[in-house]
Backbone:
């Protein structure tokens, strides 16, 4: 029986990051997924040709690097949203709210950073930062 080992892990950034927690596609923490795969790999390895410990450490380092990179990207995106929202204060904007079928022009009079997405206060109504479509007089 031939046992195949993982030679490398490639990480591709998702098209969009919807939340800030580190959960895999099936709802599990990626570290937990990795440990399950590692246990399965060790359990099913050929006793005459055991897995090289260097390969195991390399695989673990690669997954940790991918997780760290993902965390860094998410932190950077959060910082960019906060910085962008901050520049809108006291600026004239146009917002589009597809859910309420509403287009509104007005001044940004306040900001709310309590959630995952900053909210802007335009004429007493709160909108997510993503709803801001234009800045200034158009």
Residues:
């Amino acid at each position: 029986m031939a046992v195949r080992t993982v030679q490398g892990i490639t990480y591709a950034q998702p098209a969009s990051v919807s939340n800030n927690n580190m959960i895999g596609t099936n709802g599990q923490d990626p570290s937990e997924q990795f440990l399950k795969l590692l246990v399965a790999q060790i359990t099913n390895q050929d006793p005459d040709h055991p897995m090289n410990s260097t390969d195991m450490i390399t695989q673990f380092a690669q997954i940790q690097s991918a997780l760290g990179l993902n965390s860094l990207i998410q932190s950077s995106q959060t910082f960019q949203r906060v910085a962008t929202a901050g520049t809108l204060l006291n600026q004239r904007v146009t917002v589009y709210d597809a859910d309420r079928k509403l287009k509104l022009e007005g001044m940004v009079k306040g900001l709310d950073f309590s959630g995952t997405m900053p909210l802007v206060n335009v004429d007493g109504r709160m909108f997510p930062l993503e709803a801001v479509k234009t800045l200034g007089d158009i």
About this structure: The beta strands are 92-97, 102-112, 119-122, 125-128, 132-135. Residues 3-14, 16-22 have pLDDT under 50 and may be disordered.
